[in-house]
Amino acid sequence: xxxxxxxxxxxxxxxxxxxxxxxxxxxxxxxxxxxxxxxxxxxxxxxxxxxxxxxxxxxxxxxxxxxxxxxxxxxxxxxxxxxxxxxxxxxxxxxxxxxxxxxxxxxxxxxxxxxxxxxxxxxxxxxxxxxxxxxxxxxxxxxxxxxxxxxxxxxxxxxxxxxxxxxxxxxxxxxxxxxxxxxxxxxxxxxxxxxxxxxxxxxxxxxxxxxxxxxxxxxxxxxxxxxxxxxxxxxxxxxxxxxxxxxxxxxxxxxxxxxxxxxxxxxxxxxxxxxxxxxxxxxxxxx
Length: 287
Prior knowledge:
mainly alpha, single chain
């Protein structure tokens, strides 16, 4: 009888051993949101988006007032403020993506820097659930925080615009389209940052690489007077994102960018390739 019981216990042990993916998700949630530095970075991201939206609303108001008063006499210098208003809520996305992308890098690179990765992967030997759970939170935080920051920025800009007889309809399709696409792009940047952190295992190196890809390379490619670089810069993440932002728009697309669907595919390709490389190296390399 005792032999049968022992055999049953041994048979059930593999099914019960090891953490489930839900438990890994819970563990990563605790590690992410229990840190004060994480909460400060998230708050800074929202504050930046609200602040830049308010600042740009004031700038649009000043331009509109100057044009109505006749201060701008050259038609070439005139700006169609009403056409630019839908982009106002996402005025701070350029800085928000840097904060959230860097945070995504730290989510994984800090584990290797502090040595916590040994305990983490000892508890989860398969390793892929850990990176998958981190990717889930990177996407959720990047998307939700960007959308919320843009929405609050739009609300903060409305009274400022009202002083200049301008109106921003937050429920309009143009505004919602840009907000949703911007949130999706920042989520993609967060995944790229997470992948770079897993690949390089060094916070400074991964953040510098991400910043170079998003901000430095577009400038370098634009300064080089060569047809190859002129064509190649269309496929850089930032320019591909600019093309993606035109999806669902009735406005003619800038010829300096790809088609919207092409830009979307380029961003998706960056994410898929980097994530695949991160999963592969995480599985093969020692911790």
